[in-house]
Design brief:
alpha/beta; 8-stranded mixed beta sheet; globular; binds flavin-adenine dinucleotide
Length: 402
């Protein structure tokens, strides 16, 4: 008999049973969101989440929580807009405090070329009904009075203002989804690592874990930076390369920065958390690596860039620094849907931009798995696009925006 958790407590890991209807590899936000949507909306509750470490200890715990929909391609804009709408009501849906905070995001341009690309993003957003506008220096000054617009050699020319962008507490997102999924019968198995998988014909027949073997009707991998490693267990080579991505926070100060601000030229973005810490991030490390160490070099670069934007923060101390492993696709878009095996599904390629997608990836994948049919919203993101060369080239996904 299963033990149900007290409200808002993560249940203890139960014994591993020999078979589940659905096994989800990876207990991050995406795995938990998928389990919740399977159980809540499709009545599929014989589900196990297998997590090699602890719930949400991967990139979900390491990201800088930027939630936005100001992408370039209409297919991405529509997908991320759905995610944003789901986020807006998530605390109510899960009856769990997400600390969701609508801040707006300001992306700065320091050159004519970037101004043109920001204009393109503003127009693409408008076309899809997502609010975006180009703001001039005077408007930027009133949005962020503390920002230095006259950066030496690269003055701010204009910005892309995205008023519905938000932040949320990343841990709460995965905790909320997992707790509500487990209340409906989903089993969360922490410290349970998938070590290998057996394939027979076009099906995965068995998963080997450090706690015993298990079989499943359907298997889904939601393992972020380990996508290539896990896909290889079923003989699949994904078009993914994995790079470390670092970030850091300062000690807390009184609120002075409401919007998130990112600079394309400085490769740096800054926001202020609800606790008052400045959250500072930038681009990925320039080389592939499976390691979550931080480097002093990158921290010095980020600090120098943040100081250009906010010269008065020089006395702040760096409180924490960390890194995650991000799996990057050639077109900066995710991979969702079935792979070549009939019962093996992929939720991968979330690179530096997957936190904001968490509610929508679970929503659409659960629907696809239960109906065995891919919804139009995620059809463009299937693995097969790399064979048909129908890429979703998404230059609004990363750089300094996340
Ligand atoms: P994870 O949370 O990493 O979960 C995957 C889980 O799979 C892990 O817990 C791991 O332990 C487990 N796992 C791996 N292999 C196995 C195995 N063999 N067996 C069992 N379990 C396994 N995105 C945004 O949208 N906005 C941002 O501002 C943003 N900033 C970022 C900043 C940084 C520094 C980093 C690193 C990432 C950032 N991202 C951002 C990206 C975002 O964090 C990820 O895309 C997202 O969290 C992926 O969620 P996930 O649930 O797929 O992965």
């Amino acid at each position: 008999s299963r033990r149900y958790p007290e409200r808002n407590e993560i249940p203890r890991t139960p014994d591993l049973r020999s078979h589940y209807d659905v096994v989800i590899i990876g207990g991050g936000g995406h795995g938990a969101s998928l389990a919740y949507h399977l159980a809540k909306h499709h009545g599929i509750t014989n589900v196990a989440i297998l997590e090699k470490g602890y719930l949400g200890g991967g990139n979900t715990a390491r990201n800088t929580t930027v939630i936005r929909s100001n992408y370039t391609d209409q297919r991405s804009i529509r997908f991320y807009a759905k995610a944003l709408r789901l986020y807006e009501s998530l605390a109510n849906e899960l009856d769990y405090n997400m600390m969701y905070s609508r801040r707006g995001q300001l992306t700065l341009s320091h050159s004519d070329g970037v101004s043109r690309s920001l204009r393109l993003r503003a127009d693409a957003g408008d076309f899809c009904g997502e609010a975006n506008e180009i703001v001039d220096r005077q408007q930027i000054r009133s949005l962020v009075p503390s920002l230095n617009l006259d950066i030496k050699g690269m003055p701010v020319l204009c910005g892309l203002w995205h008023p519905s962008a938000a932040i949320a507490r990343h841990d709460a997102v995965v905790w909320g989804y997992a707790i509500r999924a487990c209340e409906r019968g989903v089993e969360l198995h922490q410290r349970t690592e998938v070590l290998g998988m057996e394939v027979s014909g076009d099906r995965v027949t068995r998963l080997r874990t450090n706690r015993g073997d298990v079989s499943a009707g359907t298997v889904v991998q939601c393992v972020a930076g380990y996508s290539s490693v896990v896909a290889k267990m079923v003989g699949l080579k994904l078009p993914i390369r994995s790079y470390p991505l670092q970030a850091m926070v300062t000690h807390p100060v009184k609120p002075f920065l409401n919007p998130m601000v990112s600079s394309t030229a400085l490769h740096c973005y800054v926001s202020q958390s609800a606790r008052g810490e400045l959250v500072i991030g930038g681009g990925s490390d320039p080389y592939e690596l499976y390691n979550t160490r931080s480097t002093l070099e990158l921290k010095e670069g980020l600090a120098a860039s943040a100081l250009e934007m906010f010269p008065f923060i020089g006395e702040l101390k760096i409180l924490r620094q960390w890194a995650g492993i991000t799996d990057m696709t050639p077109d900066y878009s995710p991979i969702m849907g079935q792979g070549p095996l009939s019962n093996y599904w992929l939720d991968a390629g979330w690179g530096t931009w997957g936190f904001k997608a968490t509610p929508a990836s679970g929503f659409f994948l659960a629907k696809a798995i239960s109906e065995n049919r891919i919804a139009d919203e995620i059809r463009p993101f299937q693995l097969s696009r790399f064979h048909s060369f129908d890429l979703v080239n998404e230059m609004g996904a990363t750089a300094a925006s996340h």
